[in-house]
Amino acid sequence: MALIGVFDSGVGGLSILDEALRQLPEHDYIYLADSINAPYGEKSSEWIASRSMELCQYLAAQGCDAIMVACNTATAEAIAHIRKTLGHIPIIGVEPGIKPAAMQSSNGVVGVLATEATLKSDKFNALLATLPNDCQFIKQAGPGLVPLIEAGQANSEETLELLAEHLEPIQDAGADTLVLGCTHYPFLRKAIRKLLGDSVNLIDTSEAVVRQLKRKLEAQGMHLDNGKCGAIQFISSKDAELLHQMAQELMQSDLDERSTQSQLVSIFK
Questions:
Q1: If we measure between CA atoms, which residue out of 218, 59, 241, 61 comes closest to residue 69?
Q2: Which residue, 107, 114, 118, 92, is CA-closest to 186?
Q3: GO: which molecular function terms (predicted)?
Q4: Which residues of 85-102 are buried (b: 16+ CB within 10 A; e: fewer)?
Q5: N or C: which end of the chain has fewer CB within 10 A?
Q6: Rounded to 5 degrees, what are φ and ψ at 220?
Q7: Which residue has the higher pLDDT, 31 or 226?
Q8: Strand, helix or coil at 221?
Q9: Which residue ranges make up the annotated binding site?
Q10: Which of 56, 64, 135, 182 is catalytic?
């Protein structure tokens, strides 16, 4: 059994934790939300890199055997430095699934909904440059969406109206595939389906990300499926009880069958 750290700017990484609990239920998890500073997508590259490193070092100090950087923005800006600094443990990041989207699109028009920082990052654009020129990517930032999700308003009318504005250029371009390029955005599936219907294919990389974690654990002999459920510790830089409550509301996993605890870490204010 391993201790897995999962870090995000807020509640978005709960989509990754949810998938991890499905594929790897037997491990213990620490979920660290830097909610007092959410969203990361509109902050400077330097700040994101520094803060992400600080929080990953904290998780490493708690004894984590692996860390999932469950934030697209933090992955884009900081993961290379984090891996170099914390080279003794596996560091798994997330990035927009533009490659599988390009392969699955029928008409070659793909929408990418992500944060401004992710879309401008060198990592994202380097990946984009490796893909076929015959696929058109409609890149769209989603300012305002993350704060609404953080406030528990993923399915509110306000969110639906803002989402409609952000999706309009993607709809106008005729995209048949939409990449959810922020870990918060899977929680908008219901709203997206309401606006786009079922004909648009949604790409969420959480399943592939957790498969990568599983491979890393197996390589180190730390993955044993014993049929048990590990414990989860929810840590927040803002409101740990609210984080726990939102986890119960947003996640499909049954948290009642696990040992859970919440903790406010004031050092990260």
A1: 59
A2: 114
A3: glutamate racemase activity
A4: ebeebbbbbbbbbbbbbb
A5: C
A6: -100, 10
A7: 31
A8: coil
A9: 8-9, 40-41, 72-73, 183-184
A10: 182
CA angle 235, 160, 247 (to 5 degrees): 20
Catalytic residue among 56, 71, 135, 229: 71
Alpha-helix runs per DSSP H in the chain: 14-23, 45-61, 72-85, 98-104, 116-120, 122-129, 145-150, 157-172, 189-196, 206-219, 240-250
Binding residues for substrate: 8-9, 40-41, 72-73, 183-184
Nearest to residue 92, comparing CAs of 240, 223, 244, 208? 208
Look at residue 164 and tell me whether its pLDDT is greater than 80.
yes
Cα 87 to Cα 83: distance, rounded to the nearest angstrom: 5
DSSP 186: G
**Residue 83 and residue 103 in contact, taking contact as beta carbons nearer than 8 Å:** no
Percent of the chain with pLDDT over 70: 96
Q: What is the pLDDT of residues 140-161, one digit of tens each?
A: 999 999 999 999 999 999 999 9
Chain region(s) in the chain for CATH 3.40.50.1860: 3-94+206-268, 98-203
Query: Is the model's pLDDT at 266 over the cut of 80?
Result: no
Between CA 118 and CA 97 the distance in angstroms is: 12
Question: Domain 3-94+206-268 is in which class?
Answer: alpha beta
What count of residues does the chain have? 269
Question: Are the C-beta atoms of 167 and 131 separated by less than 8 Å?
Answer: no
Q: 182 an active-site residue?
A: yes
Measured CA to CA, the distance from residue 234 to residue 209 in angstroms comes to 20
